[in-house]
Amino acid sequence: MSSAFVPLLAATPALAQGGAAPPGTFAPRSEIVTQASLSMRVARCALKQDRKAAEAFAAAADEQASRRAFSKLVKRLDPCIQGGSATLSYVHMTGAIAGELLRENNGAMLDQLAAMPPRAPIRVAEGEGSSHEAVKCAVAGAPAEAATLLRAPAESPAEIAAFRAMVPVLQACVPATGGVTLKPSIVRVAIATAAYQQVKGATAPAGTN
Fold this sequence. Notes:
The chain is mainly alpha-helical. The protein has 9 helices and 2 strands, in the order βααααααααβα.
């Protein structure tokens, strides 16, 4: 993306798009692609090493459950890190595993996501976690666009177009008292995590959510 952050303001699309670089503007291929490739490789390995723990990690609805699942998974990740070390954020790891799960079986879960009826966006409360909640709201409000984005390669024209299509919904989700700021490298993985959790929540047997 053309700047260090993607500002998503609590404003109308016309106001939010004012300025030199509208939300969703990408620069040429960058370290984001490298980070995405590394994350995907480790995610695939993690699913082979301990699929149950990896699925629990991606599906965890709160931080406590996520950290419990990660503590189990991280013990199995040594074979996944070539050279013995890698720089991977917690958020990237969650989103990469979610993305791999969504693309399994020729993207069957992405087909489910795309077929879901959009939900009317509701502004989330300002505070810790508001960025994550806003992304969840946007995926629920634009499921077909989210599925298109996740099918596309990182930083491809198709990904950029899909993200731009989601921006008005995302703007309708952010707190009324302010905005949320997402690093470009986080956007895709945050959408993947929210999408996986939405599909899992919709398909889980009653009483298991």
